[in-house]
Amino acid sequence: MNKYELALVIGAKLDDDARAAVVEKAKGYIERFGGKVGETEEWGKRKLAYEIQKQNEAYYFFVQFEADPECPNELEKSMRIMDNVLRYLIVRKDENDTFSVSPEKTEEPAAEAPAAEEAPKAEEAPKAEENAAE
User: Fold this and answer.
1) What is the rounded distance in angstroms from the CA atom of residue 9 to the CA atom of residue 42?
2) Pick the residue with more confidence: 96 or 72?
3) pLDDT, averaged across the chain
4) Helices 71-80 & 16-32, crossing angle to 10 degrees?
5) What is the pTM of this model?
6) What's the pLDDT at 126?
């Protein structure tokens, strides 16, 4: 059995009970196709990068599950016809994948050090061009 993650983007116009019903229906599909549902994360309401079906905001859910390789194909067939799901994505996770994404943990990479090392090299380049021109 492989490990997978299902990302669901559900319309923001639904009430709490309807959103929970959509997530439970997706979990039911996973179990129907022979999968075992694991952890479910709710990221809450987020602004969309672009408008989908005249909506600018949606709720994000992530469902971890284990299943046979045939399950994601069958799950996608069922997810396509669900009315309140704006977008979905099923991703296979590596066996030794310990990386977990959470909305609170975002870090900016330090870009200062490499830029300082490249500055002297940039000054040397015009000298080489001047010698070639002579």
Assistant:
1) 10
2) 72
3) 80
4) 150
5) 0.68
6) 54
Burial of 75: CB neighbours in 10 Å, binned 0-12, 13-18, 19+? buried
Report H helices in 7-111: 16-32, 71-80
What CA–CA distances, in Å, run from 91 to 17, 23, 27?
27, 17, 15
Q: What is the pLDDT of residues 74-110, one digit of tens each?
A: 999 999 998 889 999 999 988 776 655 455 544 544 5
88's tokens: 């979905």
Which CATH code of 3.30.70.60, 2.170.130.20, 3.90.25.10, 3.90.1600.10 fits the domain covering 2-94? 3.30.70.60
- Token pair of 48 as six digits: 């969309």
The Cβ of residue 88 has, within 10 Å, a number of other Cβ atoms equal to: 18
- The phi, psi pair for 125, rounded to 5°, reads -65, -40
Q: What is the distance in angstroms between the CA of the first residue and the CA of the last residue of the chain?
A: 68
Place of tokens 């319309």: 11
Domain edges within the chain = 2-94
